[in-house]
Amino acid sequence: MVDKIRILYVIDALEFGGGERGFSQLSTGIDKKRFKTYLAAHPESKLEEMARLDNISFIPIDMDRKVNFKTIAQLLRIVNQHQIHIVHSMGARADFFARMAVRKLPKISLVCTVAMPVEGFDIGFIRKIVYKIADRFSSRYVTQFIAVSKALKDQLIRKRKIHSDRITVVHNGVELDQYNPGMDASEKIRLLLGITDDYPIIGAIGRLVHQKGYSHFLQAAKQVYVEKKYVRFVIVGHGPEEDNLKSMAKSLGISHVCTFAGLRRDIPELLSTFEVFVLSSVLEGLPRIVIEAMAMGRPIVATDIDGVREELEDGITGLLVPPENSDSLAKSIIDLLTDKDKSVQMGINARRVAEERFGVGIMLKNVEEVYEEILQQNRE
Q1: Rounded CA gap, 39 and 8, in Å?
Q2: 3-class secondary structure per residue, 187-234
Q3: Is 282 left (phi over 0), alpha (psi -120 to 50) or beta?
Q4: How far are the Cα atoms of 214, 229, 235, 335 from residue 198, in angstroms, in the given order?
């Protein structure tokens, strides 16, 4: 019997966001005849339940924001105890601790997924500087980087001086069978959200942080409301900007037509209810939620930024607008609300592209190839 390749995933997030959904896809879909997976994450991580359901060995590990030598020692013990072949880290703190552990284990390979530019990290200016210095020092311990977009690969080469051979682009993927454009969950979702009318819903989904540009979404929503009146807005997610955004909606006079839905897991059902999906971000890696909206066949308005350009073709699968421009955002939303034929065709085109380029099977195949190439190089 051939011994399985043992992968230790190290993830620092507590909440279940886009990156964590990516891990869930990996752990669920990876070829279990060839790979055995382990997960090291915070004791209070939302991933623990998921790992248990998928029969993955969950190992609680403390990854706070400080340099913690106990965490590094714990990772070393985990790697040795379970005879890990490859450590795969996701998240800035997870990357740091994994690199510090692997540097003492030269025979262990390390894969780091880069899903966001450093500028998009939800940390202060000083911490970003410290991270950049630590990253430059510790990058030598990474065997292979996985960048979720070509734009991120270019940034790794240009800004972090990583050789292109050490970077593999693997786009995010979605479970296409879970995103059925024919789904109709409108009545259920409207009831759950307390929306009693049948007016079209303009929706946005993501963490409530500055990077997501929700202030521009709300300013655009005000303009759309002034022109259309019979429309509703839903923002799904939570984060440090929540109170500020609710206050802003009130000051704009749209709080009565704007619902803050909090953190939710029923993403396909929510997307099926949206007349238009909006991404107002000022910075992204390769936003998974855009691919999910594409798979659901939703018409999309998104900011014209790195990563998003690799997902959407302007005028074909969505409408791209300049970032931080609420006027353009509002104009494009109104355009899709008004021109039903264009809206429907864009949704059809988006679903086709999702099927061709962003299925989870493609992502899994590419990641498994990264693992196998690393082990092949180790054997040579």
Answers
A1: 6
A2: HHHHHHHCCCCCCCEEEEECCCCHHHCHHHHHHHHHHHHHHHCCCEEE
A3: alpha
A4: 24, 13, 17, 20
Question: What's the length of the chain?
Answer: 380
d(C-alpha 132, C-alpha 293), whole Å: 33
Dist CA 231 CA 150 (whole Å): 37
Give the torsion sign (CA, 205, 343, 196, 231): positive
Q: What is the DSSP string of 150-196?
A: HHHHHHHHHHS---GGGEEE----B-GGG--TT---HHHHHHHHT--
pLDDT at 137: 73
Angstrom distance (rounded) from CA 161 to CA 155: 9
Please give the Cα distance from 10 to 59 (Å, whole number).
Answer: 10
Return the structure tokens found at 351: 């679903």
Q: Please report the pLDDT score of residue 1 as a whole number.
A: 41
Asked whether the beta carbons of 141 and 109 are under 8 A apart, the reply is no
Distance CA 318, CA 329 (A): 12
Q: What is the pLDDT of residue 204?
A: 98
Nearest C-alpha neighbor of 280 from the set 265, 302, 300: 302
Contact yes or no for 13/20 (Cβ under 8 A): yes
pTM exceeding 0.70 = yes
pLDDT tens-digit map of 130-164: 666 667 778 899 999 999 999 999 999 998 889 99
Residue ranges for the chain with pLDDT beneath 50: 1, 120
Domains, the chain:
5-173+359-379 (3.40.50.2000), 176-357 (3.40.50.2000)
- 77-103 per-position pLDDT tens digit: 999 999 999 999 998 888 889 999 998
252 alpha-carbon distance from chain centroid = 30
Query: SS3 breakdown of the chain: % helix, strand, coil, rounded to 5?
Result: 50, 20, 35
Residues with Cβ within 8 Å of 263's Cβ and at least 6 positions away in sequence, in order, are 15, 16, 236, 237, 238
